[in-house]
Structure formats: structure tokens, C-alpha cells
Amino acid sequence: MLPWGGSMQNQQKGFTLIELMVTIAVMAIIAMMAAPSFGNMLNRKRLEANTKELMLVLSQARSQAVLLRTNTVVQLNGSTTASPTNFFWVSKNADIKLEGVPQGHNSPPSIVFSPQGMMLPRSFVKMKEVTNLNGDKEWVADQVLVNGEAKDQIENYPRTITICSQKLKKSKVITYSVIGAFESMREGSC
User: Fold this and answer.
1) At 60, phi and psi to the nearest 5?
2) Can you tell me where the transmembrane regions are (predicted)?
């Protein structure tokens, strides 16, 4: 019994306002520390999903070439109508892009699989930037004279495809063998 007539059993139970505010502040600090790593995790998953989707499209195109005994084409960054011999891949995320697009081109050269499933060599016309008569810059084929005739300069393109996440500054590099089979995938930076 207490001197004023109360007892110890009537004490209030619960949190004070100060205790509640401190708890909320600690939880907010922990959440702020976790948010950047959560965002990076989401961006990594997006990069992996885009890479897997591209590999699936390439695998389907190769299989279809062998099955139909005809060439199949995979257009990268293209959005034409798909058909049994024409495939395309476009990133579903704005920050994920293909690297290695030749200057003056909108996309890398298409990938072509032969009826045997082999990846045919890719090449592109080398471009150069010039100023036209109106003073505007434009891209034109870089040509050389061969026996008095202007010929486009052709450059070979590697059997690698690099997908870059601009938010992560990381990339996935897919390498295919001469026979068109998946060879390796490694991480890189962009």
C-alpha cells in the first residue's frame, strides 16, 4: 500500500510518446539504409531477366533455323513483326541497353543462324559523321576508292552481345561460338 492510498497494481501499462517516437526514428534509419541495396537488387534482377530473355530468343531462333532448314534472323533493338524465321529482342527497361552499337547505326547488326544452326559472321558498313550543305550533321557510309570505284568499308562484328544497366554501371557479356552455341556469360562494367 502506498501512503496516498493507491497500490502498485494500478500502474499504467504501455509506451510513452517518447518511447514510441524513438522506436519509429530507429526503424526509419534502418529502412533508409536498406533502400539503396534493395534498389540495386531490383536493378540486378532486371539485368538478369533481360539477359535470360535475349538468350531464350537466340536459342529459339537457332532451333527454328535447324527445324525449318532455313536462315533465321534475330534483330536486336528491333520491333518488327515476329515470324517463324524472324525474331526480335528489345529491352523492357529503359535503363538497360545494348552496348557496342556502331557509330551512325541505331542497333547492332542482326544475328543470322544458318540451317545448320551456325551463327553467320556479322558485319556492318563503317559510318562517318559529315556536315551537309544545310550545315546539319549526318551519318554517311565511309567509302574508299578501289580501282577508281567507291566501296563501303565493311567491318566485322564480334560474336559477343553486351547488355548494360546504366543504373548499375554493370553489364552482362554473352559469347557465342562459331557453331552458334552459347559459350559463356560474364559480368563487366559499362
Assistant:
1) -65, -40
2) 20-42
Order of all β-strands in the sheet with 182-189: 96-99, 160-165, 170-176, 182-189
Cα–Cα distance between 141 and 126 in angstroms, integer? 6
Number of domains in the chain: 1
Q: Which domain holds residue 44?
A: 17-189
Closest CA to 54 of 147, 188, 189, 185: 185
| Identity at 22, one-letter amino acid code | V
In a domain, 57, yes or no: yes
Model confidence pLDDT, tens digit, residues 101-124:
776 666 777 888 999 998 888 776
The answer as to whether 4 is a domain residue is: no
Residue 81 has a pLDDT of 74
The answer as to whether 183 is a domain residue is yes
